C-alpha cells in the first residue's frame, strides 16, 4: 500500500446519517478497508528474505510459516476496517463536552515499524449533529491502521472530526508507549509520549480547554 492511497482521501470514511439498517450494518461506500495495493504473496516472500538477511534461519517447523504470518500481521495493522460514521441530529441542543476517555490506540511507528500502544481521549463540543459514541473509537482505529507518527495520528483524528462532524470544538489527547523507545534504542521502559490537538472553541476558550484537560486527566 502506498502513501498515496492514504493521502488521496480514498480511505476516508464518509459521514453517514443513521439509516434504517442501524449503525454497523453497512460497509463504507468508498471501499474503506480494501487497500488499493496489497500483495500478500510478495510481502511473504520479502519477509522471508528480510529474516534470512538478518541471519534468522527459517528451517524449523516453528519458523517456517513466519514470513506468511508476518505479512498477514502487518497487512492487518495497515488495513482499516470498514465502518459508517453514524451521526444523529442534536435535537436537544446539547452543547456540553462529549468525551470518550481511554480509547485503546494500537499503531505502528513509521520510522521503525514497531508498535506503539496507549490510549486516546477524544472529545467534542456538539454542533448540529452528534456522533454514535462508539464511532470515536472507530475514527481512532481508522487512522491508527497505517504506518504512523503519534503527532500526525493525533492531528488526523482531530482534523477529520472537525471537518466531517462540524462540531463547535474538538480535542484529542494521545498517551502512548513506543516499543521503538522501550525495547530498543534508549530502552526507556515505561516512558509515555503525550500529544494533543485542540480545535475550535476548545482551542480558543481557556475555560473549555481547561475543562477538557481536567476531564481527560492530563495536566494542561
Ligand atoms: Zn519508532
Describe this structure in words.
- Helix content is 37%, strand content 25%.
- It has 220 residues and is an alpha/beta fold.
- The chain has two domains: 40-77, no CATH class; 86-216, 2-Layer Sandwich (GTP Cyclohydrolase I, domain 2), CATH 3.30.1130.
- A hairpin with a 5-residue loop joins strand 3 and strand 4.
- Helix 2 crosses helix 4 (66-77).
- It is elongated, with a radius of gyration of 20 Å.
- Residues 109, 111-112, 114, 178, 180 line the site of zinc ion.
- Zinc ion is lined by residues 109, 111-112, 114, 178, 180.
What is the structure about, briefly put?
The protein has 220 residues and is α/β, with parallel strands linked by helices. Helix content is 37%, strand content 25%. It contains 9 helices and 8 strands.
Low-confidence stretches: 1-12, 16-34
**What is the distance, rounded to the nearest whole angstrom, between the alpha carbons of the first and last residues?**
37 Å
**Which architecture name of the largest domain does CATH use?**
2-Layer Sandwich
Q: What are the bound molecules?
A: zinc ion
Q: What is the domain total for the residues?
A: 2
The CATH class label of the largest domain is: Alpha Beta
Overall body shape? elongated
Kindly state the mean pLDDT as a whole number? 86
Order of helices and strands: HEHHHEEEEHEHEHEHH
Assigned CATH superfamily of the largest domain: GTP cyclohydrolase I, C-terminal domain/NADPH-dependent 7-cyano-7-deazaguanine reductase, N-terminal domain
Helix content: 25-40%
User: Helical region count?
Assistant: 9
Question: Gyration radius, to the nearest Å?
Answer: 20 Å
Amino acid at each position: 500500500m502506498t502513501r498515496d492511497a492514504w493521502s488521496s482521501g480514498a480511505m476516508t470514511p464518509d459521514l453517514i446519517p443513521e439509516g434504517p439498517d442501524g449503525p454497523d450494518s453497512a460497509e463504507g461506500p468508498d471501499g474503506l478497508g480494501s487497500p488499493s495495493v496489497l500483495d500478500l504473496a510478495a510481502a511473504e516472500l520479502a519477509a522471508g528474505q528480510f529474516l534470512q538477511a538478518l541471519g534468522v534461519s527459517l528451517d524449523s517447523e516453528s519458523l517456517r510459516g513466519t514470513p506468511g504470518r508476518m505479512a498477514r500481521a502487518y497487512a492487518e495493522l495497515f488495513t482499516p476496517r470498514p465502518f459508517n460514521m453514524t451521526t444523529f441530529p442534536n435535537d436537544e441542543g446539547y452543547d456540553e463536552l462529549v468525551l470518550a476517555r481511554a480509547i485503546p490506540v494500537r499503531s505502528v511507528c513509521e520510522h521503525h515499524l514497531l508498535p506503539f500502544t496507549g490510549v486516546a481521549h477524544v472529545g467534542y463540543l456538539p454542533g448540529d449533529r452528534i456522533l454514535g459514541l462508539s464511532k470515536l473509537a472507530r475514527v481512532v482505529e481508522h487512522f491508527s491502521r497505517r504506518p504512523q507518527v503519534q503527532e500526525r495520528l493525533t492531528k488526523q483524528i482531530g482534523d477529520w472530526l472537525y471537518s466531517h462532524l462540524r462540531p463547535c470544538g474538538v480535542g484529542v489527547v494521545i498517551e502512548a508507549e513506543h516499543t521503538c523507545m522501550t525495547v530498543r534504542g534508549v530502552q526507556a521502559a515505561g516512558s509515555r509520549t503525550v500529544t494533543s490537538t485542540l480545535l475550535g472553541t476548545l482551542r480558543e476558550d481557556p475555560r473549555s480547554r481547561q475543562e477538557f484537560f481536567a476531564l481527560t486527566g492530563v495536566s494542561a
